[in-house]
Amino acid sequence: MKAALKPLLDPLLRDNPVTVQILGICSALAVTTSMSTALTMSLALTAVLVASNAVISAIRRHIPAQIRLILQITIIAAMVIVADLILQAYAFAISQRLSIFVSLIVTNCIVLGRAEAYAMSNPVGPSILDALGNGAGYSAILLVIAFVRELLGFGTLFGITIFPTVANGGWYHPFGFMLLAPSAFMLLGLLVWAIRAWRAEQAEPTATPVDREGVLT
Amino acid sequence: MPDLNPISLWQRLLAAPNDSRGKTLTMAFLVSFVAAVAVSSAAVLLGPRLDANRDAERRARLEALIADTPGLAEILPGAGIDSLEVLTVDLRDASLAAALDPEQMSELSADDDIAGIGTRPDLHQIFMARDGRDLALVILPVYGQGYAATIRGYLALGPDLNTVVGLAITDQSETPGLGATIQTPGWLALWPGTRLMDEAGDIRVAVVRGGASTDYEVDAITGATRSSNGVQNMIRFWVGPLGFGPVLDALRNGDLP
After folding, report:
1. What domain count does chain A have?
2. Is residue A107 part of a domain?
3. Model pLDDT for residues B135-191, shown as the tens digit of each residue
4. Taking the complete model, does pTM exceed 0.80, yes or no?
5. Using CA atoms, how far apart are residues B206 and B195, in angstroms rounded to an integer?
6. Which is the most buried residue in A73, A80, B78, B161, by most CB within 10 A?
7. Could you tell me if residue A217 is inside a domain?
8. Residue A63: closest C-alpha in chain B
9. CB proximity A191 to B under 8 Å
10. B-chain residues within 8 Å CB-CB of A62?
């Protein structure tokens, strides 16, 4: 049982796509100024990831090796466009705030990474679990960062006031830096540091080995 | 006789080695075809909802533009855009038209087409507000090519039909953080007071880098030259001779009501 759930549970912390593999950073920085955009982005990415992993895994035995990447990207891109249209139709306000980042899911390394690393060589069931696990791992990091940024930057969570700000007659001075992208970089760095301090096996070797030509090995 | 039974053809395809030329081409075609069908059906099925959302968004931006225009609330009988007068104008001869007709288009030559729109619809709806019998405000719909996609907006002109009283951007897909600044209140607030033409009637309005110094200039957005130029060219085109220029002249001379 535990082995069967490994693809679902591993990416949550032990092999998290964001904090361990440092993938999907661009969107993690861009959409985390509020919980609602981070949650919408997380759901969109997870939906695309599950659908693309399932389809690619289902036809994996018939994908010619030379054109496998372009077939994967075609499948992923079609799903991203559909997801973007659905968001624009049913959650227009949030899709406006996410602007191009939904369509940029197609370039999110997590999606192509899971297709190539997992779905191409595993059956549909485990591929869906793997997609759910990676989607959840990505979502967890996004939501943690968005929680800190929205709470400190606006004094709200999901738009509901937690700390009444000075502008609205309260006591809290919003920390404007939290609304800028560099703050997300720093929070992500602190998070990676905290996780690796707690789970030392995730830390990379201190020095990157470089051969005599200066090429990373 | 070749075997044309679709079931056995399908089985032969599945059994074919993955790297054979036939299977590579067939798989490429099948995947693209299914993807194309999925995307097109989503676009067609969701189309009405998408259009309704975009219209509502445009309307909301136009409402906000009116709400932000000083002194307008006092002269409008009701609230919002329903109290504006709507005029359908024909750009070819600056006359009134009965109804919009998207079929009537004019081709633009490359030299004339500074806004990058290709063809120009001849009939447009403009919005007006009056203070008694005098014009108080004219709102023109404008659009043009930005950096990533078409930028659409509304340009509000004061009673002299030469001074901008407000600009609203309703649709844009510029780069977030750079070109998308064209839609932020801070940048749009630079527009009111900008003049379009000098006394000789030459269009002078411009988006300039390095600090606006005259009434005709607005600061460009750093790092978003093409988005800034897109807005400039769109406004220059639509107030120019091939845009609403003749209509504005007619309004000024009293040839149009």
Report:
1. 1
2. yes
3. 888 889 999 999 988 999 999 998 888 999 889 888 888 887 788 888 888 898 899
4. no
5. 10
6. A80
7. no
8. B18
9. no
10. 14, 18, 23, 27
